[in-house]
Amino acid sequence: MAEVGRVAVRDPGALLPGGFWAAVAVWLERPQVANKRLCGVRLDARRSVGFPRAEACGHSPITGPQQEERAAARPCLRSLSGGLGPGPSTGPELGTAGRGPEESQPRRPQGEDPREAAAAAQLAGCPGQPGKAGVREGDFPASDLDSLWDAFSRSLAGGNPEMLAFLTGSRAGSQPEAPSELDVVLRTVIPKTGPHCPLAAPRREIVVQDVLNGTVTFLPLEEDDRGNVKVEMSNVYQVRLSQSQEEWFISILIFCPEKWHSDGIVYPKPAWLVEELLARLARWSVESKRSGFKSTLSLISIIKYSKTYQMLKEKYKDMVKVWPEVTDPEKFVYEDVAIAAYLLILWEEERAERGLMAKQSFVDLGCGNGLLVHILSTEGHPGRGIDVRRRKIWDMYGPQTCLEEGAITPNDKNLFPHVDWLIGNHSDELTPWIPVIAARSSYGCRFFVLPCCFFGFTGKYSRRQSRKTQYREYLDFIKEVGLACGFHVEEDCLRIPSTKRVCLIGKSRTYSPAGEGSMDEQRTQYINSRRGRPMSPPGEAPAPPPPRAALGRAGHPDGPQAPDAEAAKGGAEARANQLWLSGFQPREKAERVRNCATLPRDFIDQVVLQVAHLLLDGEQLNTGSAPSSSSKAWNRGVLNGSVHIRDWREEKPHRQQCPEAKRRLFSEAFKTRICWFFSHHPDGCVLPSDGCPFAHGPAELRPPQTPKRQKQVL
Prior knowledge:
CATH topology of one domain: Rossmann fold
Distance between the termini: 58 Å
Structural class: alpha+beta
Strand content: 5-15%
Largest sheet: 8 strands, antiparallel
């Protein structure tokens, strides 16, 4: 064994050792944060176990009833070298969706080969139980952890003192000074799939956390041709927290560094463990700021998502080359590809949960460039997109992609009773209304929203809490709207190139179809209260709600109508044009420019000269060529105030502080414009001609370079 890296950690906030275990949890539950070649991880099971001791090898000093009780509780095992068989679960299980002890995984049928079960589960995507991401993928039953750990413990105590010493952080063959309880996790590491990732199969490993000794050990598991599983000793490594004279250290140790095998994905090189992982763990350990959001892709299968995303990315990557909009093509194309992959897996698992065969229909409100609609429609989901303004790219999709230009206002004319899902992808002013529209369209209508800009029901969202970030508060507001509309609202975090990547999903209702009438009264009261209107006092009848789309049996509009829907139907036509809340304004068809980009250039130059004149205390500005300036007596203007002209001699050279991309742009723009200080400042430019990026006179001007553009392949 060898220590391959160590870093000292300064802890001014007294965050250790708790911060260390928080950092370990990130690497355990979200390894893709550090290793970009991983798609994610699935936590299959978790156990609290005792430390391996001599009795695990069959030399137990305990006799009598206690020995018989322990033997009865131990699963049926074969030796570690001979492979492991399934045994009954003896403890609680925990998946990535926060499953409790009572939520156990399904047992494997008796006599079924574990390799065949694993392969079938990965290919078929075992649906498992609804709403539990940790059991959908069905790779291996969690009872394997009991068998794996018990057999591994026997091998340690019986004939592997070096590994036992590595786990305990002590001398070979010695035992911990005090009884120690270990937290043992069985996890499946999921690599990204793609042309540059040859390793596509998930890998399992056992993670052993010893809080008392401050160590976490990663034990990779390998399976031979006969289905026997064992620990791959050559790739075992450990992260250790230690303290010496009130100074903390985090170390990485490898059990067999001379036999370490790196595939560059699941098993990185030792240099990466030291230079990347160790540095990240040290930084995370002393960061007291905690995220208020869930981990990414917590509601769907990560394995399915990885495969679907790679498939869609390859299929639609050419859209980047022909993107006709002024927006960044790579950001918008790959963002919509990721959202489409998420929805496709979400809907696939919903069909499995509900026993549906037909693919879900959808309407994307505020569809923008329409690429998400195009992808979902091409993948077989019937749907359409609506936006107030037509985009150039709409003409490129073809007739199978249905996109409509029109404004959506929240009233009874804009309901979608025959649609399964409403989508709000950065839908701006429509975002808080989408749960309302979905709730009033039909009992079976669901919603997916990805909030971006902060809008309330009738305008910009007004903050109410200073203890939360504005983004977190707005997400809570949209979630509150969904709950008020009668939805069970779930939250997830997408993997998209955007800072606003938290989505909210309403898949089911909190009430039965018979309670639609009273539920809609509550919706109306809630919406009015958010507008500033008070709720109806106790004992006073609320204002009559607007009519809704007729509800059929089990929430379908074509069945027999419910009594409350029948009563509301009579006034539907008379109130069809009435807004659900006055004050809502849909976006204008022509987007107005709200910055100074369209102001006349002469006007801008005049304002700049007036400001400079005031800063220089009324000193006359030059209007022609600048005089030779004194390097020591250059006038900076109002020095005793908070604003003055920058002295560029005090700035660091541009090449030392800019990345390569910005340095390239800087070189392309060098001497392409006249220096303002050379032309207008009373003392001229403070920099010499060879040190100024702008031209000191027309003689130094050079033509601007035309940026290279990618060829468009049609």
